[in-house]
């Protein structure tokens, strides 16, 4: 857009035009509103993040490392216009095989953000994606938008791997439903699509170290702080996104600095895990990747050698990043599911490591080699924080399908 140049003084302009000039002047002076997150790094408490950072924004000089969660009005509008003018690409996966609200915000990962009514944005390796279901498509196929990547074909392959798309849910869920009436009930309500992700193991380890005795909102903030030390990839919907940092970049953060940022006792485990992984033969990345080819019990024992990793966190890492499809993370939610539907004789008993092992065994005996996927669906079905949200999502989906069918019937009648 070209600049407007007026040959006469502003006071001689029409009243409406003077008002327009005043508004534009205010927009140019508009500062980014202060972030809302309580996790703040002070100038003396944290080293500077990696040099590749978001475009410089005006901020309070007393908190230069404050987590950036908002942008100016003008930047948001310009970004929205740019995205609207570019194309989304078809991933060609129906909702029955991938339901975004049943997969991304349900406790497997804490790095995706809702950036639109039916849109989620997140990072896969060095690639920044937005995903959404096509409203006009009765099957609800997923479309993706690539915001940042140096290689589009590589990005698409990375996304497919991350979403575990080689695994088909249709036959799997049919077998689960035949094996367990509770699963059958939940699967009918969800109508498919709850997948288990295949995340980067390093990223997964530190996400679940942050999850210990914590709630989702605080986990997301802590993971966001750690992520901010990685390469900046872009901003979408008011959120800034970074590639998850390497162990080398994370190693510059001290325990005290993390405690001051609100990590509490988890700070000690995060720093300890970084050092332990760096000391592994071949380095932490290679060591974690090697666990994908090992037996589950050996994987769990290896992960529990890391500071702060117990049986439950180890099972989460194994299931969500290491191809251990029958790993069962037993927490209070899964314990309640087991004692209510599978092992009522344990109702009222205290959850112990020995009984947790029995719970994992009954899941595997019931659902087989993909028992972790079945457990994940049952887990989502029991989360109070998800029930209202998922019910609304499912109703919206069914209403959309109903409208499409009615329109289709009208067309048939006219013909």
UniProtKB/TrEMBL annotation:
It is an enzyme of class 4 (lyase). InterPro entries: DNA_glycosylase, HhH-GPD_domain, HhH_base_excis_C, OGG_N, Oxidative_DNA_repair_enzyme. Its EC number is 4.2.99.18. Belongs to the type-1 OGG1 family. It catalyses: 2'-deoxyribonucleotide-(2'-deoxyribose 5'-phosphate)-2'-deoxyribonucleotide-DNA = a 3'-end 2'-deoxyribonucleotide-(2,3-dehydro-2,3-deoxyribose 5'-phosphate)-DNA + a 5'-end 5'-phospho-2'-deoxyribonucleoside-DNA + H(+). One of its GO terms (cellular component) is nucleus. Pfam families: HhH-GPD (PF00730), OGG_N (PF07934). PANTHER family: 8-OXOGUANINE DNA GLYCOSYLASE, N-GLYCOSYLASE_DNA LYASE. Keywords: DNA damage, DNA repair, Glycosidase, Hydrolase, Lyase, Multifunctional enzyme, Nucleus. GO terms for molecular function: 8-oxo-7,8-dihydroguanine DNA N-glycosylase activity; class I DNA-(apurinic or apyrimidinic site) endonuclease activity; damaged DNA binding. Residues 210-383 form the HhH-GPD domain. This is DNA-(apurinic or apyrimidinic site) lyase. One of its GO terms (biological process) is nucleotide-excision repair. It is found in: Nucleus. SMART domains: ENDO3c (SM00478).
